[in-house]
Amino acid sequence: MIITEEAKLKTLCEEVKTVKEGEEIGAKLLKELTETKTGIGLAANQVGINKRVCVINVKEPLVLINPKIVEKSKEKFVFAEGCLSFPDSKLKTMRHQDIVIEADNHSGKLSFSANSKEINDAFECVCVQHEIDHLDGITMFDREFKQEPIVKGVNAPKKIGRNEKVTITKGTESKVLKYKKVQPMLKDGWVLSV
Ligand SMILES: [Zn+2]
Fold first, then answer.
1. 146-162 confidence digits (pLDDT tens)
2. What is the DSSP letter of 60?
3. 158 CA distance to ligand 1 centroid (A)?
4. What is the full DSSP assignment across 99-144?
5. Contacts of 170 (CB under 8 A, 6+ apart)
6. Which residues are catalytic?
7. What b/e readout covers 107-131, taking b as 16+ CB neighbours within 10 angstroms?
8. I need a surface site. Which of 115, 135, 157, 192 has the fewest CB within 10 A?
9. CA 58 to chain CA centroid, nearest Å
10. 92 CA distance to ligand 1 centroid (A)?
C-alpha cells in the first residue's frame, strides 16, 4: 500500500543495519513497484517502512541500500516529475544534471547523468534524486521549479544560453538537449518545458 499522506512522508528514514535487511526491503519495494505498472521508483517510507532503502527501475531494477549523494553538479535542469504518492500531481522540478552516489550494496560509486542523448538517462538521474529525497523526508514539491513573476525592466526573462540544457516535450515524448539544438525543433511541434 502506497502512502499518500504528505505529513507521513516528511519523516527522516533510518539507516538499515545490514545489507541483508536492506535487500529484504528492496525485494518488497520492487514487488510493490512492479504492481503499480507505471512507477519507475519507490522509497521504503512510501510503503510505511522508515528505512533508507529505495528502488529505481528505469533501465534495469536497481536497489539502493543506505544511499547517499556524494557529488552533484552545479548544472541543473528542469524536468516534469510525478510521484506514486501523489498520483494526481505532475510538476516541474529543478534537478542536478550529474550526480554520484554511494550505497552499501554497491562497491564503488554509481554515476548518473542527464547529459545524454538517451532520455532514459535523464529519467534515471531524476528518479535517483527523487527517491533519495524521499528518504530524507523531501518530496518533489520541495524541488518545484518556480518561475519568478516577471516585472518589466527588472527581471525580464533571462536569455537561454546556446549550450544550456533544456527539456522539450511533444505529446508524451521528452528530450533533454542543448538549447541550440532545440531551436529548430520548436517549429516542429516541440515545446520548451520551462
Ligand atoms: Zn515519489
1. 877 666 666 655 677 88
2. S
3. 30
4. EEEEETTEEEEEEEES-SS-HHHHHHHHHHHHHHHHHTT--GGGGB
5. 188, 189, 190, 191
6. 131
7. eeeeebbbeeeebebbbbbbbbbbb
8. 157
9. 11
10. 13
AA identity, residue 155: N
The pocket of ion ligand 1, defined by CB under 5 A, consists of 83
* Beta-carbon contacts of residue 48 (< 8 Å; ≥ 6 apart): 1, 3, 8
Per-residue cell: 124: 534515471
The C-alpha cell that represents 52 in the structure block: 533508507
pTM: 0.77
Q: What is the pLDDT of residues 20-75, one digit of tens each?
A: 999 999 999 999 999 998 899 999 999 999 999 999 999 999 999 999 999 999 99
